[in-house]
Design a protein that fits this description.
six-stranded mixed beta sheet; 4 domains; alpha+beta
């Protein structure tokens, strides 16, 4: 299914829906078109209640219909319309196409969207309504989360040879060797090991840890001893950590619990949405989902890194990328131009403070933070680079150091990468980069 838009002088603007695949049309007809609504990808701006024309084409049947519709929502690169024809009249026009679609030979799957994806947005969660419809229409380019994962992805292979494992996202807490409790989420789970999105720099390979897995439906937690066996390295940061579970005599109990959380998570995956990040971008995706659903969790994967954003009732519940949290983490996610996203219409059990920041305000703050960083001039320093302290220059300088500069010097002296320095210091990335550039210019720091 392709979706585009155009405009002609003096006429209602047009939105295009093209169904090359008869199976895609049959599914979309059953879920949405026959109920009077559709959601169409478009980068154009539309006014609420604007009357448009939807050009629906079905090349497999040699058919084309121009349908009058009214815009009922527009955000994040998508336009939701309600057809002006009633559902019975619409079915009369499109029923012959459905019959042709069901009789047509089915082509090989081409990766287009299954309409179930957006159904989850309105299933008791969203405020969106297409008249008689109870669900939304398909968004171009999205894929169901239940599809077979790409085995070329290193995240997908960690425990493949050791035990049957599944892509499973549940809340987790890890007791680090230092005694620090780290919060994160699983990516893969089997009864022998887990792959975690967590602050990996706190978990050296070879160290013993305790992993607490949280059941997504009941909130029950099970703590299992384990050992860090692998890091997935990103640009100057540990993107994920593989932990071998060592349950000992509790092996049967752990295996049962893992099976339960995988089953519960699989049900959530089937109701979710998955697709390429580059279609809309992180900021537009989050804005769109927050407008269509009362609550939800958006997970974005970029290389070996993973970011997670939760919102509820218009408020930002949490945002995290590794050790980075809050609006700063949002800005990191928005800076990613490539990757995959997954959206689920629920929020994991939380124990933190009550959220107070509006999701729209958080998005604006993150975009502003990102813009500040992009306006910076000066040398571009690789995230993997390390900085070396020139102590004699530090002693000679007569200029007082700011708090951010002091923090940069302390972390550089400890051997941190530039990316790790950006992660650890709570100020926004632009402020930290200005401090690094100033210290390099004064000779207090140099590239190692």
């Amino acid at each position: 299914m392709a979706a585009t838009s155009d405009a002609s002088a003096g006429h209602a603007r047009r939105l295009h829906l093209v169904f090359d695949d008869p199976k895609a049309f049959a599914g979309e007809y059953a879920r949405n078109l026959s109920r009077g609504g559709a959601m169409i990808a478009s980068s154009d701006a539309f006014e609420m209640r604007e009357v448009v024309e939807v050009v629906l084409e079905a090349p497999f049947a040699g058919a084309k219909h121009v349908l009058a519709a009214e815009v009922v929502h527009a955000a994040g690169g998508c336009v939701a319309v309600q057809f002006l024809d009633g559902a019975p009249e619409l079915r009369e026009k499109l029923e012959p196409l459905r019959e042709r679609a069901e009789r047509a030979p089915q082509p090989a799957a081409d990766g287009l969207l299954a309409g179930d994806d957006v159904d989850a947005l309105a299933e008791g969660e969203g405020d969106f309504d297409f008249g008689e419809a109870e669900d939304g229409a398909a968004l171009e380019g999205f894929e169901t989360t239940s599809q077979t994962p790409d085995e070329s992805d290193p995240n997908e292979r960690t425990f493949k040879a050791r035990a049957e494992r599944a892509a499973t996202r549940v809340a987790v807490q890890v007791q680090a060797p230092t005694g620090k409790a780290l919060s994160g989420r699983t990516r893969d789970v089997s009864h022998t090991g887990v792959l975690l999105s967590v602050d990996g720099d706190e978990l050296p390979v070879g160290r013993d840890v305790h992993v607490s897995l949280v059941h997504p439906a009941t909130g029950e937690a099970m703590t299992v001893p384990g050992k860090v066996v692998r890091h997935l390295e990103g640009e100057g940061v540990v993107g994920a950590v593989a932990v071998e579970l060592r349950p000992g005599e509790r092996s049967a109990e752990v295996q049962k619990f893992v099976a339960e959380i995988r089953e519960a998570d699989a049900a959530e995956q089937r109701a979710g949405i998955r697709g390429p990040l580059e279609e809309l971008g992180g900021a537009s995706l989050l804005q769109m989902f927050a407008a269509l659903s009362k609550r939800g969790t958006l997970t974005v994967t970029h290389g070996v890194e993973e970011g997670c954003v939760c919102f509820e009732e218009g408020l930002l519940v949490s945002a995290q990328v590794g050790s980075v949290q809050g609006v700063k983490a949002l800005a990191r996610i928005f800076s990613w131009r490539e990757g995959l996203f997954e959206f689920r219409g629920n929020v994991a059990t939380r124990t933190g403070p009550k959220p107070t920041l509006a999701i729209e305000a958080a998005i604006l703050d993150a975009v502003r933070m990102l813009d500040e960083g992009q306006r910076l001039s000066g040398p571009v320093i690789a995230p993997t680079a390390r900085l070396e302290l020139v102590r004699e220059r530090l002693d000679e300088t007569g200029t007082p150091l700011g708090k951010t500069e002091e923090a940069v010097i302390e972390l550089a002296a400890a051997g941190f990468t530039v990316r790790r320095i950006l992660d650890v210091i709570p100020e926004n990335d632009a402020t930290i980069r200005v401090a690094i550039a100033g210290l390099l210019e004064r000779g207090v720091l140099r590239l190692a």
